[in-house]
Amino acid sequence: MASLRDIRRRIKSVKNTRQITKAMELVAASKMKKAQQAALAGRPYAQLMADMLAALAGRVDESLHPFLVKREVKTRGILLVTSDKGLCGPLNANLFKLVLDIKTPAKFVAIGRKGAQFLARAKRDMVAEFSVNDRVPFADVKTAVEFLVQQYLEGTIDTVEVIYPRFRNTLVQEPTVRPLLPLAGVADFVSHLRAEAGDAKPADNRDMLFEPNAQTVLEALLPFYVNRYIYQIILSAKASEHSARMVAMKTAKDNATKLIGDLTLEYNKARQAGITQEILEIAAASFATN
Q: Taking the model in full, what pTM does it have?
């Protein structure tokens, strides 16, 4: 049985751990809220761009844009979005399972230190690594996306896909593989985005005039919209990361509280047993002298 001093030390150690995990839980909750607000703030802008693409859908020759031309898939291009830090439960491990399920030739681009380390350990073909901090600057995301798009246009890769933890709610982060390029068609892409965002408003059927012409506008708008779409995906991944870390830290805090209760009970029992033993010794000594 442990001594009273050892039990007191363990109680103090666990209390310090609980204090740390509580602070990390509060920090993660604050960051999660900011990431959610950033994602919601960009939604009206993305929906407006979707409306413009929908208006372009019937006026352009989709076979002229490289994003809309299907090709034989020899090498997949995959953007793996993970966290830079750990302590976020099974979030990254679930994404790594999706990577291990890929048996076809693929080239990977990593956003997040954990993903880059895993790809190196798994000996996957990682062509680039990018870092995006918790503020998620659009310029940092654009650099990574433009690198992937350049690889796609050069023919080095034949698809652009994103593996990321999709934010459902505070308790559920769904590991998702999102095919992005080539697009099945402008109209299908827009309808998919609206269904995903829960946008039930009717389409704008007004006649629009595009200058200099619809094809030129599409060529300028579609690459920018792809950048913006992946930016929204990374915002969702950041919200998932902070949410998973908040839940993991709350679980650790609750476990520490339970352990402190068990140790306190053990300490009281040991102290009570010591007092009882001393009383018995005093009584035995008194009986012996009499």
A: 0.82
